[in-house]
Write a structure and sequence with these properties.
homodimer; globular; four-stranded parallel β-sheet; 6 strands; Helicase, Ruva Protein, domain 3; Dna Topoisomerase Vi A Subunit, Chain: A, domain 2; 2 domains
């Protein structure tokens, strides 16, 4: 509570403090900054948030978030229709898109299998993925899941589910990150990179 | 740039990324979270921001930010009218208010003297502070400025400016923070705490 500011300001701080990466202190700093730069930050934020609230929706094809029922990736006729990339979350889809390295379409799982969090196959969009992979034009399913225990468990589970479909299931390579120095890498990464070594 | 989301979503991410404490990555995470919790976060944020943009203003008395021309602290008749607390910024005023330890009113400088940033006495609200301190009912001016070089320079400058007025000028005590362990404190703090030692 903060009696020194009006309840409208208080309410804005409360909402901001719930955002990931912001706590009460940084929310207060952010709101003060916004009030000081009213025309440059506060009004644009209010407008942009209202507009997104009105227009944002989940793509019924892939699970991406966009401002249309079918997202811009699924709509784009230049995308390779034979390749499907499975990601955990929309944030991962956006990260993949920033690299421009993948030319196909996506499938957002909205999570990974997790015994700890009680997330089973039915909680994720795996049945829908299996149906999408059965479309004849799909040739490859790329699993772009995190190199975590849950991510890899999910990858194996999906590979099993897709073994009946006539698609090649691949996974992102594990190894030394670009710019990475061996001395600073964990043992698991070094082992994985060694096991996946390639002839030059 | 992020072609995978609509331009409205992109615009919201851009505005959020400019907030202190958030960068592009955390802005994207925050926006995704908000879109997923549309009714709980995005719409309340849009409303609260619009309301604050419309109503927030700087108190003409003390410089606090509130939703009235005279802020709730300055308006409150129960506040001690004999005591004025000088703070650098509105965030510091709010921090003081959260402790409920100070019963008087405030004066927000909107910065501290800084040779490096080229901020001189005329850039701060020091002349206005001198005028406010000349009101007969004011008995004490508490300088609650940061224990930084700039903060302390500003405190000394203000003390000099107020030497003509018949007010007592005090400053926050420096010493060991509550819960602080000596071993983890810097030398300056230990010296300050030793010099300001009190008999029990």
């Amino acid at each position: 509570m903060n009696d020194a500011a009006g309840k409208e300001i208080e309410r804005l701080i409360d909402v901001m403090a719930k955002l990931p990466g912001l706590g009460p202190r940084s929310a207060r700093r952010a709101v003060l900054q916004m009030v000081k730069k009213r025309d440059l930050m506060l009004i644009p934020l209010a407008r942009a948030a209202a507009e997104v609230a009105e227009k944002a929706m989940v793509c019924i094809e892939c699970g991406n978030i966009d401002t249309a029922q079918i997202c811009s990736v699924c709509r784009d006729p230049r995308r390779d229709a034979s390749s499907l990339c499975v990601v955990e979350d929309v944030a991962d889809l956006w990260a993949m898109e920033r690299t421009s390295a993948f030319k196909g379409r996506y499938h957002v799982l909205s999570g990974v299998l997790s015994a700890l969090d009680g997330i089973g196959p039915d909680d994720l969009k795996i049945p829908r993925l299996v149906r999408r992979a059965e479309v004849p034009e799909i040739e490859e399913v790329v699993l772009a899941l995190g190199a975590t225990v849950d991510g890899q468990t999910t990858a194996h589970y999906i590979a099993g589910q897709l073994s009946g479909a006539s698609v090649e299931v691949t996974s992102l390579a594990q190894g030394v990150p670009v710019g990475g120095e061996l001395d600073y890498l964990d043992d698991g990464t070094i082992s994985a990179a060694l096991n996946a070594r390639r002839s030059l």
